[in-house]
Specification:
446 residues; alpha+beta; Outer membrane efflux proteins (OEP); two-stranded parallel ribbon
């Protein structure tokens, strides 16, 4: 019985833990997204692949040592016919004799060592391999930046849609109170049916607006869950708030801006370096290549299997050699490859110039958008304060019986519009600050 109770308690506790929402700050959300993102995991694997390829290329220049050995049974030894008159005087010319070459058993084992002494393309390739690792690391950083941007925008979108629901609830509560008061006045004959219907229409419109806002909120949470790599149905609770502190704590500067701070530009720089190594590699094909090799081993042969393993019959041999390859003429193949490499470098340089101009435009647009949103915040905040004052004054007049419910509905709609404009301006300003960080290449800076 005690065991059954314990199991029930554990199940209840487990279910309660499952039902608890996942509480996240913006930094925790980004860390979780980086941990779960499949594309980023592949980027890390690509880094490891690049490093492994670099080591593979390095091994080409190291000594290559191999052992080769084997035994062979010649079940039918090769035979040939020769003219023995050339070896035996007095024998008529054209006299042929069958001669056997080789024996029934033969064996060989040898150790070979090959070493590259000089190959221009190899040394260029070593540098290019390191640059390839650098490129894979930059591609990983680009993925992290994209994740960072997507998560931040999704995070603040959830906060913004949540705030919209809160505003609708406040307005619904306010209109519901007014609706109840108006019903009582109508029942007592102090207001007309038209006045009651006006409030009812506004109330129904707000309920419809809440349904739409709730759907948008649910969708924004699903998008956020997708961005951070958790299942769609996981309940989340965002800790941070959408406030003006996010705006006024943000500072940007163009004084120390460098195009290489943008990961896209940095990737093009690395791509240009790789194209230069390709050019150097093609030019190095004009240089001679030098190799050294050493070979040492034993071989034997016998017509008798028992004698095959007699150590005295295994005879040693060894060679030491050098090989040099000097290119002379290849039909202008190397020259054509060199020209291709030059053109590819020019293409990258043109891409870099275009990206510089694009970055300049993006920076100007992002700053202009940010400053506009900051101005909108100031204006919408003043309008919100005025709308509150107007609504309170209208409400007071209505309660005192000197104001109409039409004026109250209009002032409530104006207040609702001012609230939405204020929080939309706040949200747009936060998004604009994220865009500035991205365009300046400082999105990952804390």
């Amino acid at each position: 019985m005690k065991n059954i109770l314990l199991i029930i308690i554990l199940v209840i506790n487990f279910d309660s833990l499952k039902s608890q929402p996942l509480k996240l700050t913006i930094d925790e959300s980004i860390d979780l997204a980086i941990e779960n993102n499949e594309n980023l995991k592949n980027s890390y694997l690509e880094e490891k692949i690049s490093k492994a390829l670099s080591k593979e290329y390095l091994s080409i220049g190291l000594p290559q040592i191999n052992f080769d050995g084997g035994v062979k049974y010649n079940h039918e030894v090769q035979k040939s016919l020769i003219d023995i008159s050339r070896f035996m005087p007095g024998v008529p010319e054209g006299t042929e004799q069958e001669v056997q070459f080789g024996q029934t058993y033969d064996g060989r084992m040898d150790l070979t060592l090959d070493q590259m002494i000089f190959n221009g393309s190899y040394f260029v390739g070593l540098s290019a391999a390191k640059e390839l690792v650098n490129l894979s690391e930059k591609l990983t950083v680009r993925n992290i930046i994209d994740i960072n941007e997507s998560v931040q925008k999704a995070y603040y979108t959830v906060l913004n849609t949540k705030k919209r629901i809160e505003l609708v609830d406040i307005n619904l509560s306010r209109l519901n109170t007014l609706l109840e008061q108006t019903k009582k006045l109508y029942d007592n004959g102090f207001v007309e049916k038209l006045d009651l219907n006006r409030i009812m229409v506004s109330f129904n419109n707000l309920k419809s607006e809440k349904i739409k806002a709730s759907r948008l909120y649910q969708l924004s949470k699903e998008v956020f869950n997708f961005q951070i790599g958790v299942s769609i149905g996981t309940e989340i609770e965002l800790i941070d708030e959408l406030s003006e502190d996010l705006i006024y704590s943000f500072i940007y500067s163009l004084e120390d801006f460098d195009y290489s701070q943008r990961i896209e530009y940095s990737i093009l720089q690395t791509d240009k370096n790789l194209k230069f190594y390709d050019l150097k590699n093609n030019r190095s094909q004009y240089l001679p290549q030098i190799y050294a090799n050493y070979n040492y081993g034993y071989n034997t042969s016998s017509s008798n299997y028992n004698l095959f393993f007699d150590s005295d019959r295994w005879k040693s041999f060894g060679t030491l050699g050098f090989k040099i390859i000097v290119p002379i003429f290849d039909g202008f193949l190397k020259r054509s490859k060199i020209n291709q490499s030059k053109y590819k470098i020019e293409q990258v340089e043109n891409q870099m110039l275009f990206l510089e101009r694009s970055i300049n435009l993006q920076v100007n647009q992002a700053i202009s958008s940010y400053e506009n949103t900051k101005e909108s915040i100031l204006v919408s905040k003043k309008n919100l304060e005025l709308a509150k004052d107007v609504y309170l004054a209208t409400e007071r007049k209505f309660k005192e019986g000197v104001g109409s419910n039409l004026e109250l509905i209009d002032s409530n709609n104006s207040l609702k519009t001012a609230q939405n404009q204020y929080y939309n301006s706040l949200y747009e300003s936060v998004i604009a600050s994220i865009e500035i960080k991205k365009t300046l290449g400082t999105l990952l800076n804390k």
